[in-house]
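Q: I'm writing up a methods section and want to include an example of the input and output format. Could you take the sequence below and give the corresponding predicted structure tokens, formatted cleanly so I can copy it straight into the document?
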Amino acid sequence: MEASESVPGHAAIRGYLARLGAELAECDAALRHDALIDAESHLRAAVRAGASPERAIDEYGSPEEVARAYRGTDDAPGPWRREPATGSAGLAAVPAGDPWSPPAVAAPSARTRGFRGIPIIGIWANPAAWGALAYFGLVGFVLATAYFAWSVGVGALALVLMPTLLGLPVFVALLGSARAICLFEGRVVQTLLGVRMPRRTQPVEGAEGVGFWQRIWCWLRDVRSWLSLAYLLGNFPVSVAAFAVTIGLLATGAALVFAPVLSLLGIPFASVDAGDDVTIHFLWYRLVPSADGTISIPGAAAPASIAIGLALLTATLWLARGLGWMYGHVVQAIQVARPQPVPPRRA
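A: Here is the clean output for your methods example:
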């Protein structure tokens, strides 16, 4: 929002926003972000329409009332939750058809909730864990690669054009695209990782009603522009590492589970040329090829192999869920960052 001190009622609105932020201090950062954006937009619009700041604040509601209404629409998310809350509508209710609202999710059945409550193995019924597995095992890696290629390509073009003064607008366009990409990434993260993202877009501080070069200066001063670009560049190696670990753990766990099952069904674990002197170690068993060159898992190894594989897959789900929770809050922090007010320009 415009931060000039010449705006009527600026001090009163700032004070109201500070009290509202304090009331929502214990709530989710994205929920607090939306509440502040909504309140600031409403109050400034009312003041521009001719209402006094005191009247606009009185009609909007006290910070306690507004905070209570927002808390009624979203439960404060715990570390392992994904399902959107279904609280009563209030001042913070998302309008019908709002593109920023998360997709409706059917309430889990009593059987699903009961299984999810079982320690350790309940993670198999957690949709956020499976979403994180899909994100780190495929979606996030593909998107991070595309983001990195775009950032490096456009950034290199901006550096090449910088001596001609065309590089600065290209670089500012890169910052703008980075912010837009992070908004899109937030939607993906909210869907797959279960971390709430802001549903209100905060404008660039001080960029309204100014000239072209002043607008560029505002974009360069906005911390969210640089955080977004840093995310696109730094997220690539993180996604590569997460992809390698996720795929490696999944492949190992699946092999431990299905290899003995296939052997029990008569499908060999491996096959070599007859007569080759090959020895394969599987867990603590030494596997020797049969006369026809096929290698099978002994029946005695099947229970231990399946148990270890299931334990590894369960640990992978927990790892993906925990990493997804942390990763999602990093993306959330970028989107809710509030820049410092831009000092007013002197006449």
